[in-house]
Design goal:
Blueprint (H helix, E strand, L loop, with lengths): L1 H15 L3 E8 L2 E8 L5 E6 L10 H7 L3 E6 L16 H16 L4 E6 L1 H12 L4 E7 L9 H8 L4 H11 L5 H4 L2 H8 L2 H9 L8 H5 L5 E6 L7 H10 L3 E6 L6 H4 L1 H14 L4
Parallel strand pairs: 3-4, 3-5, 5-6, 6-7, 7-8
Antiparallel strand pairs: 1-2, 2-4
Amino acid sequence: MLLYLFSLTTTLFLSLVGARRRRLRLGGEVSVVYTVVGPVGGEPWLLLHGLGSVGSSWLPVIKALRRDCRLVVPELSALGGTRAAGGGLGIRQGVAAMAQLLQAEFGDRPVTVCGLSLGGWMAVRLALAHPDLVSRLVLIDAGGFRDQDWDHVQRLVKVKEIAGVERLYEALFVRPPWILRHSKKAFLAAYTSPGVKSILAGTEERDAFSTADLARLDVPTAVIWGEKDGLFPLATARAMAAALPRASLTVIPNCGHALHWDCPERLVAAIQAFRQGSRLV
């Protein structure tokens, strides 16, 4: 109920600021639900949420960028209304869908792609597959880096019961937001939904990226990480930033993996600082 009320409130806010809900049909079983907000000629951005989440989780970032950016915020699973085989867009299918979405919304305009966790993983793969579509990257506690402890990651994200939710919370948050502290059953339902299970089951080693892959991404890139990320440790952020040709690393102290929930104001400040330091002509 609490998560439903949160979703209802954020939907109302987005409608009040001119956001529009759309659906892009891609053929077969796939159709992507997404939100657009901001001036049509504004700086183009794509916001990719994390596993078991929805587009409205970007609300603090949307509020900060909506006045001078054109934001496209897709739903990556059935939790947000997107339709796909299995209920969720895995990395490869998601990259193909996002490329079509960017071309539909922005044509030939290169876009700043901002992704958190699974969304960051997809952002890297999108930039590698379609470099002409991506002008900048913002990677927030991004998944997908090959050289890390994947057994540890899988133990945390393959949640089966409330005890598993509590272990995952310790990795995600230093201070869980009140709505999630009181909605562990809803969180469990999201992480055990068919769409999330489908994404996890369909993700393979070939979807991960290496330092050599990152070295090919010659665009301004912000690597933004929570100091106390218990899912992807800070060493991962440092290795990624070192491999990227034009990266800046921002470590947000005393914050966990889910920066948009744990430390939204500091996340927004880091994104705005990157925008100021990498102005597009």
